[in-house]
Amino acid sequence: MELLGKLGGGFVLVCSIKENELPKCGLACSLGLTRFGVIFISRHVFYDLRISEELKRFIIGHELAHIVRGHQILNAFRMKMGELLEETLKARREKIADIFSGIIDFMFRLIAATAIIGLDIQIVRQEELEADKLSIELTGCKGALEFAEMLNSLKERLNMDISHESFLGIPALTLSERTNAIRALCG
After folding, report:
1. What's the CA angle centered on 39, arms 37 and 41, to 5 degrees?
2. Cα distance between residue 111 and residue 168, in whole Å
3. Is the pLDDT of residue 74 over 70?
4. pLDDT by residue (tens digit) across 142-171?
5. Residue 164 buriedness (CB in 10 A; 0-12 / 13-18 / 19+)
6. How far apart are CA 39 and CA 139, in angstroms?
7. First CA to last CA across the chain, in angstroms?
8. Which end of the chain is less packed: N or C, by CB atoms within 10 Å?
9. Cα–Cα dist 80/46, whole Å
């Protein structure tokens, strides 16, 4: 793969998937580490004649950036933190010595939960914008600007502006923020 060659080589398999075959995948997703992994792309991207080769390259470059930058490691960490947070928030104390200690305990848990959620939102946002930037460096601006137009069209058609969410479903990055960042990088 030419794009991987620009990054020093490795092995990344690109596979097409049916719509909703991987529910959280959407248009494309990836799994891997450093320069080895798998990129899953919706069959729609491969077979829709309206999707240019430049746009396909941008999408592949974006997913490749997630693999090369090790975003899956942070994602796995965030998911584990989310599971721990969920367990903590669901846990019941069998015996509460007094109401005051219960309130203090709850406050510490709430502060910790807020910090974890805030960190997760920042990481999701940073990873997506970083992947877009690296893909632009690898593939150029033509596909990136087409992608920005596609996101803008999606925003208008579905009347929604969420690009990515945190592990708890809280918006972390909007379509508008992504298109603005792409346009800023591409002049």
Report:
1. 170
2. 16
3. no
4. 999 999 999 999 899 999 999 988 777 788
5. middle
6. 16
7. 28
8. C
9. 33
* Ordered DSSP codes for 58-81: HHHHHHHHHHHTTHHHHHHHHHHH
Report how far residue 187's alpha carbon sits from residue 179's, in angstroms, rounded to the nearest whole number: 12
* CA separation for the pair 39, 104 (Å, rounded): 46
CA dist., res. 47 & res. 64, Å (int): 20
pLDDT digits (tens, 9 = 90+) for 76-106: 666 666 676 666 656 554 444 455 566 666 6
Closest CA to 185 of 121, 126, 135, 127: 135
- For residues 76 and 71, what is the distance between their CA atoms, to the nearest angstrom? 9
**Residues whose CB is less than 8 angstroms from the CB of residue 142 and which lie 6 or more positions away in sequence, other chains included:** 52, 54
- Residues contacting residue 63 through CB under 8 Å, at least 6 positions apart: 28, 29, 30, 39, 41, 131
Structure token pair of residue 87: 């367990």
Rounded to an integer, what distance in angstroms lies between the CA atom of residue 182 and that of residue 133? 7
Identify the H or E element spanning 25.
none
